[in-house]
Amino acid sequence: MKTGTVTIVGRPNVGKSTLLNALLGEKIAIVSDKPQTTRTRILGVVHRPDAQILVLDTPGLHKPQYKLNSRMVRTTLATLDEADVIYVMVEAICPPGPGDRRVIEQVRDAVKNDVPKVFLLINKVDAVNKARVLPLIDAYRTMLDWAEVIPLSASTGINVDRLLDLTIKLLPEGQAPYGEDFLTDQPMRTLAAELIREKILDQTREEVPYSVAVAIDSFVEEGKLARIAATVFVERDSQKAIVVGKGGQRLKEIGTAARLDMERLFGTKVFLELWVKVQEGWREDEQTLTELGY
Ligand SMILES: Nc1nc2c(ncn2[C@@H]2O[C@H](COP(=O)(O)OP(=O)(O)OP(=O)(O)O)[C@@H](O)[C@H]2O)c(=O)[nH]1
Ligand SMILES: [Mg+2]
Hints:
three-stranded mixed sheet; GMP Synthetase, Chain A, domain 3; binds guanosine-5'-triphosphate; alpha/beta
C-alpha cells in the first residue's frame, strides 16, 4: 500500500478546491468565482486499491490585509511541512504573474533541498487553445526543479487520473491511516456552514463575499430530518441589506440553494433557518476568528 499527504497550494481562484472535489468524486469543498473562497485547510481522502492519498485543499496564498487573511496564509504554509508531495497550481488562462511567482518562492523556501516532490499543475487547460499551453510550460519550467509539470483541467477531468498515478509513484509505502469509507475531516456542521457561505458568494459581489462568515447555532438530527439554524455575519448594515434582499427574497434564495445541497450531501431532509447579524470588524477579531473555526 502507498500512502501519504498531498497539499494543493496556489494563489486564490486557480481551482484548488475544484481539484480536491474532482480527486474525491464528491463535493466537499466549496467553489466560487471569487478569490479567497477557501479559508481553512480541508482534508479529503482518496481511496485506490493500491493507495490511500490524504489530499489537503488550502486557502489561496495572497498578501494578507486582515487577521483573517494572515491566519489563512499561515494555515496554507504550515501544510508544506507535512506534505509528501506538493501541488503548486497555476492557471493556463494567463501568463505567470507576481502572485504565482510569490507562491513558487514560498514553496521553494519551505522545501529547500527536497525539491523533487513538487508538481506544477497548470489548470484550466479546457479554457485555452493548446498552442498557448506550451509557452507557459516553458515559462514555469525554469522557476523550480519540478518533479512533474502537468497541464490539466480540474473541472473537466483532463489529466486528473494521470496526476493521481504519478503522485502514487512518489508516495512512501505504509499502512492506510483511514478506513475505506472515510471521506473528509469536515464535520457536518462545517459542511453546512460552508454551503451557506458558497450560496452567498454566488449571489453577492465586491466587498460582501469577503465580509461574510457563517456560524451554525444548532444542528439537530431527528431521524431523516436535520434541523439547522445558522447566523450569517456581515460587517455593515448595508451588507446585511444586500444579503437579505428586498422583502427577504435573496436570503430565501440563499437558504433554498444551500438546503438542496445539504440534502444531497447528507442524504436527509433539511429544515434550515437563517439569521443575518452585523458584527463590525470580525475579520480583525482574534476571538471571533477562533470561534468561527479560522
Ligand atoms: N474553465 C475552468 N474553470 C475552472 C477549472 N477549475 C476551476 N475553475 C473555476 O475557477 C474558479 C475558482 O475555483 P476554486 O476551485 O474555487 O479555486 P480555488 O483555488 O480553490 O480558490 P480559493 O479557495 O479562493 O483560493 C471557479 O469559478 C471554478 O469553477 C478548470 O479546470 N477549468
Ligand atoms: Mg478554494
